[in-house]
Amino acid sequence: MKSLNNQKSTLNVLRGLGSVIGLVGLCVILSIITPTFYKGSNILNILRQVSDISILAAGETFVILTGGIDLSVGSVLGFCGVILASVLKTTGSTLMGILVGLGLGSLLGFTNGMLVSKGGLPPFCATLGMMAVARGLAFVYTQGRPISSFEKSFRFLGTGYLGFIPMPVIIAFLVYLLVFIILKQTVFGRYVYSIGSNETATRLSGIKTDYYKTMVYTISGFMAGLGAVILTARINSGHPLAGQNYELDAIAAVVIGGTSLSGGEGSILGTLVGALIMGVIRNGLNLINVDPFWQQVVIGIVIIAAVLADSRAKMGRGR
Amino acid sequence: MRGKFMSKFVWFVVAALLLFGAVAFAAENKVVIGYSVQDLGNQYWQMVAQGIKDRAAEIGNIDVIVLDARTDPAKQLAQVEDLIQQKVDVILLSPWDPDPGGSCVEAANEAGIPVIVLDVGVNSGKIETFIVSDNLKGGEMAGEFIAEKIGYKGKVAHIQCQLGYVIPALRGEGFTKVMQKYGIEIVAKQPADSQRAKGMTVMENFIQAHPDLNAVFCENDEMALGALEAVKAAGLEDQIIVVGFDAIPDALCSIKNGGLAATVAQQPYEMGRMGVDYALKVLQGEKLPEVVYVPVALVTPENVDEFLGGRPCE
User: Fold this and answer.
1) pTM, whole model, 2 decimals?
2) Residues of the signal sequence (chain B) (predicted)?
3) Is A290's CB within 8 Å of B79's CB?
4) Distances from the Cα of A270 to the Cαs of A28, A253, A277, B82, in angstroms?
5) HSE-CB for B17 with a 13 A CA cutoff
6) Burial A252-291, CB ≥16 within 10 A → b, else e
7) Predicted local distance difference test score (pLDDT) of residue A13
8) Which of B125, B175, B199, B213 could form a disulfide with B143 if both were Cys (CB 3.0 to 4.6 A apart)?
9) Which CATH architecture has domain B135-265?
10) Do B17 and A298 make contact, defined as CB atoms within 8 angstroms?
11) Residue A316: what pLDDT?
């Protein structure tokens, strides 16, 4: 039993290693091709650019680990963004705006969770519906017009620095630290993995799977709300179209990071590496002036290659 | 096993990068112009980008970097940041929206890189000049044309592009202004997301609700061509005139064949060329006017041949 556990942890380390090698490899190549890439300012630039997606991906990791999926995060981000923008405009209070954004995101996530756990809907359907509803509400609320220009104190969250580190990077770092601790060190984290591995067995052993499932979607919604705060502050505008297709980027980051879409296997650090790989590729392709239409092709190929490498590795372990 | 595959994967990426990356080792004396554009999926922006590239090639010794934001304001800001990292000489910007666009300009201002904005304005930051199609004027032209055609009375409908976009909204505003001026009632107004198929569906519903319509103004040609199909299907070609905006090739041919009544032509290609010319003026230290207008023109059956430029229509 003990040896099995050891083996398992070694394999988990290996899983993470593949994407890390990929990331390092990419960075080395880009540094050779363009000297702009490895400048400190560009590295911070990349980190700031991926902070949004990586925060969404952190929430998505919880959901995917339980074997679910959350397609609504991009739309929830858009809806939270316009509502919090409107709160900022009417109350003038930065704190109010942030709280409303986080609260609304959590509420929408909670709704997803209830639909999945109590309503028995497949996660794909529940969150697909929420995706349409949230985007629609964002348009209903704004009539398609953005709500813009906020106080300096709010914009600081998106454009400010602490020392030389951009605020969004600091927020994303704290999120990852917290999620790492939750998944590694807490009972909650253990149950998330356990539900993903075998939900029935988990439920039969007396664990309230419904409660934990509702919680993971709530967390995902909360992260979308946090993403909305940062994005709105960064572009100085709450726009009903904001966050379009972000769910796909977030899911891609999780998948590239080696988390299995069938749940139960994966890690938050893998997700972080996945998000960084996407950010590095986008930034790198821009720096070396790759035709914009080809950029999408390259990103798609990377997603496929990463998952392919992962499944090959699994096969190699003689699953 | 895994390591082997990963290394293959890494080499694959290398190959891909080398294959598609026109590696830019810019010579010291070359001018580098970066263009961040809101959406290259749209023919219009493709024409602007083409104008920039062609003009730069004509003048010579200019590198052009085109980045496509795919209608995402955050992505656009990230791309402008990437251009700043590369220390381009001038940034041309077609923002997705004036407010996020302002954030892009502010970022470039901080880095001391001059910005020229093409076609969509910005609400903050310091720009060298704003080169723009006169969309409001175009909408007014379309409105005047419709008003005259229907004898300054009757019922008209208005099909909008995707809500949330500034430019088409200006066209609608110009059209609405003229309708109000003559007291012509706009009985129906709906977005059809700039798409042909949706334009048709929306128009079908309009015809159901208002069989006595006299005209419809669509904020782009794609929707106008869809609306035209709905009008034809209802057998109302003689009663309802359809007017679009953009002068895309399909629309010009439709006008020639007696389908659409009119459209408004912008000159995106010309706009791109102007962008390069004005960028060079900035680098020579010239002071530019606040706004530079690229003229728009009404296209009707009378003058459609000029715009077709000898291209055949089926």
Assistant:
1) 0.79
2) 1-26
3) no
4) 19, 8, 10, 25
5) 28
6) bbbbbbbbbeebbbbbbbbbbbbbbbbbbbbbbbbbbbbe
7) 53
8) B175
9) 3-Layer(aba) Sandwich (3.40)
10) yes
11) 65
Residue partners of A42: CB distance under 8 A and separation at least 6: A36, A283, A287, B85
CB-CB under 8 Å, A236 with B99: yes
B225, pLDDT greater than 60: yes
Q: Are B283 and B90 in contact (CB under 8 A)?
A: yes
Q: What tokens appear for A142 in the block?
A: 């704004």
Q: Give the C-alpha separation, A47 to A164, whole Å.
A: 12
Contacts with B99 from chain A: Cβ below 8 Å: 146, 148-149, 235-237, 239
Pairing of strands A161-162, A165-166: antiparallel
A32-40: which pairs have CB atoms within 8 A and are 24 or more residues apart? A33/A284, A33/A288, A33/B17, A33/B21, A33/B23, A34/A284, A34/A287, A34/A288, A34/B23, A34/B24, A36/A287, A36/B85, A36/B86, A36/B87, A37/A283, A37/A284, A37/A287, A39/B85
Asked if residue B9 lies in contact with residue B258, where contact means CB atoms within 8 angstroms, the answer is no
Longest dimension (CA), chain B: 78
Sequence spans of domains, chain B: 2-131+267-293, 135-265
End-to-end Cα distance, chain A: 18
CATH topology of domain B2-131+267-293: Rossmann fold (3.40.50)
* Best CA proximity match to A58, nearest among A242, A192, A221, A220: A220
**B145-201, pLDDT tens digit by residue?**
999 999 999 999 999 998 877 789 999 999 999 999 999 999 999 999 888 888 998
Residues of A in contact with B97 (CB under 8 A): 146, 237, 239
Residues B244-270, mean pLDDT to the nearest whole number: 92
For the CA atoms of B177, B182, B184, B190, what is the dihedral angle to 10 degrees? -10
Contacts of A179 (CB under 8 A, 6+ apart): A58, A61, A62, A268
Cβ separation of B23 and A34 shorter than 8 Å? yes
Contacts of A144 in chain B (CB under 8 A): 162-164, 191
Contact A235 B73 (CB under 8 A): yes
Mutate to test the interface with A, among B4, B5, B170 (most CBs of A within 10 A): B5
Q: Do A235 and B77 touch (CB under 8 A)?
A: yes
Is A286 within 8 Å of B79 when comparing Cβ atoms? yes
Cα distance between residue B210 and residue B75, in whole Å: 42
User: In this complex, is the C-beta atom of A43 within 8 Å of any C-beta atom belonging to chain B?
Assistant: no
Helix (H) or strand (E) segment spanning residue A263 = none
Is A292 an interface residue toward B (CB < 8 Å)? yes
**Which of A236, A245, A296, A308 would best serve as a mutation to test chain B binding (most B beta carbons within 10 A)?**
A236
Q: Using CB atoms, which residue from A22, A33, A39 is nearest to B23?
A: A33
Spell out, as residue ranges, where chain A has pLDDT lower than 50: 1-4, 319
